[in-house]
Write a structure and sequence with these properties.
CATH superfamily of one domain in chain A: P-loop containing nucleotide triphosphate hydrolases
Order of helices and strands of chain B: HHHHHH
Order of helices and strands of chain A: EEEEHEEHEHHHHEHEHEEHH
CATH architecture of chain B: Up-down Bundle
Number of helices of chain A: 10
Number of strands of chain B: 0
Number of domains of chain B: 1
Shape of chain A: globular
Strand content of chain B: under 5%
Strand content of chain A: 25-35%
Oligomer: heterodimer
Structural class of chain A: alpha/beta
CATH superfamily of chain B: Phosphate transport system protein phou homolog 2, domain 2
CATH topology of one domain in chain A: Rossmann fold
């Protein structure tokens, strides 16, 4: 590691290296000078990152580097944690999601989220998918039916479940449950899809289906994915951010990150020379 | 470089490097011996060179198998991936170098006992000296990851090409002087061409070292002095 001075306050850190592949559609999320503290412990340090619209952005880094924390900030999932404080901004279009008077519920509708373990509700497949619409007060059957089919088709699940929509979602396989969660995540037609280790609890075939799905959803949605599987990040993403100790070390074109990274820390991590 | 968390990965990469070094050593010896055998008309030595090529082919196959296995097992990234790909490429260059040295050995057997203008044979010998130092230096550059040394070899090949062009002209003159020289001179011309091609393979290896160290291909155009493709000789009709 390049930093090894004894006193943490006098440590100097190299600035982030950027070589981002820009999207023609512009920037979906603009993270500016973002800092985050859990109590007195600073978990994110001066993150500056432009998430490209319609592209897949992967966040990689060792456990505890802050990548999940950063992902959760994007839809304010961290709000409920005690003693959390932040500084800086995350801009979506022209408003700051941490600005005053932001409707968090409305924000989360724009940011679908998929978690590490599939978490379908204990209700039917159909009810799971249309849940976000029912929360919004939409009850018209034609709209619900249409949305359910569209979301399940987008999640490459329709053909497998179309004959058992009224059965419990808990009877599905893990991979199907995860795709169901993705279908639920996109039912409200969000702009951004946040994925926190979406494949870590799945077998290789289910993983391949999710990766295939990510490729299909790309373009229509902006996707941010946190993953421990570096080959997966290399396969599915356009840009990759490498984080370490709460800092963004290098953020840029995925091909470069995995073939010829610019920073030694990134190189050590992607080649398995860490710790 | 820091070691991998998985130590056996380091061993696999080191194994590839050692095998390449062994191949390089054999190829250097083959070129030296083939040239010596040609100059001295030493049939036994020429036969020994021909026999050495099997070991080289064998090593190349092993390197390829191990490299493929490493890719399948470890999914190497960045510098590690380049290390594996470079091993495959360099092994195939050295294997070709072996084939060409072997060909010089075979031709030495074919021309033994024929007329021989010693001056031209020495010309081939001089070319071979240049190429031997290119081969040695580029293999050292690979071992040390020395970019400058690799680029130096890459540029030096120009001198070999120039020497080849002048040898080519000289051999044509001998052939025109007396048709009885044609058989020997043609064999010698192929020997010279083999040495020149070996020089080209050393520049290939230099380019691979560049890719290995820098992570990007060498894009500049290499200086070329081999003009023989454009040579034309008027028949005097004597």
């Amino acid at each position: 590691m390049s930093v090894a001075t004894a006193d943490p306050n006098t440590r100097t850190f190299d600035p982030t290296v950027y070589h981002v592949k820009k999207s023609a559609e512009g920037v979906a999320l603009d993270i500016k000078d973002f800092n985050l503290w859990y109590g007195h412990a600073q978990a994110l340090h001066g993150i500056n990152m432009e998430i490209q619209k319609g592209e897949v952005t992967a966040l990689i880094g060792p456990s505890g580097c802050g990548k999940s924390t950063l992902l959760r900030c994007l839809n304010r999932m961290n709000d409920l944690i005690d003693e959390l404080s932040i500084d800086g901004s995350i801009m979506v279009d022209d408003f700051d999601i941490y600005g005053p008077g932001v409707d968090v519920i409305a924000l989360r509708k724009r940011m679908g989220m998929v978690f590490q373990k599939p978490n379908p509700f204990a209700m039917s497949i159909y009810d799971n998918v249309v849940y976000p619409l029912r929360v919004d007060g939409i009850t018209r059957k034609s709209i619900l039916d249409e949305t359910c089919e569209r979301a399940l088709r987008s999640a490459a699940l329709w053909d497998e479940v179309k004959d058992r929509l009224k059965e419990s979602a808990l009877g599905m396989s893990g991979g199907q449950q995860q795709r169901l969660c993705i279908a639920r995540g996109i039912a409200s037609d969000p702009e951004v899809l946040l994925m926190d280790e979406p494949c870590s609890a799945l077998d290789p075939i289910a993983t391949a289906k999710i990766e295939d799905l990510i490729a299909d959803l790309k373009g229509h949605y902006t996707i941010v994915i946190v993953t421990h599987n570096m080959q997966q990040a290399a396969r599915v993403s356009d840009n990759t951010g490498f984080m370490y100790l709460g800092r963004l070390i290098e953020y840029g074109h995925t091909d470069t990150i995995f073939t010829n990274p610019k920073k030694k820390q990134t190189l050590d991590y992607v080649t398995g020379r860490f710790g | 470089m820091v070691e991998h968390t998985v130590a056996s990965f380091d061993e696999e990469l080191q194994g590839l490097r050692s095998a390449i070094m062994e191949m390089g050593g054999i190829a250097e010896k083959m070129l030296l011996d083939a040239t010596t055998a040609l100059v001295r008309r030493d049939v036994a030595q020429a036969q020994a060179v021909v026999a050495m090529d099997d070991r080289l082919d064998d090593l190349q196959r092993k390197i390829e198998e191990r490299a493929i296995l490493t890719i399948a097992k470890r999914q190497p990234m960045a510098i590690d991936l380049r290390e594996v790909i470079s091993a495959i490429r360099i092994a195939s260059d050295i294997e070709r170098i072996g084939d060409m040295a072997k060909n010089i050995g075979k031709r030495t057997l074919a021309v033994s006992g024929q007329f021989e203008p010693q001056k031209v044979v020495l010309g081939v010998n001089r070319m071979s000296d240049l190429v031997q130092s290119q081969l040695k230096d580029v293999l050292d550059a690979y071992t040390q990851g020395n970019l400058e040394a690799a680029l130096d070899v890459w540029e030096r090949d120009e001198a070999t090409d120039a020497l080849y062009t002048s040898l080519f002209r000289e051999l044509l003159t001998y052939m025109m002087e007396d048709p009885r020289n044609i058989s020997f001179c043609t064999h010698l011309l192929f020997c010279a061409k083999n040495v020149e091609r070996i020089g080209d393979h050393t520049t290939n290896i230099a380019e691979t070292v560049h890719y290995l160290v820098k992570g990007e291909p060498l894009t500049a155009e290499r200086p070329k002095k081999d003009r023989t493709s454009f040579e034309h000789v008027e028949h005097t009709g004597k």
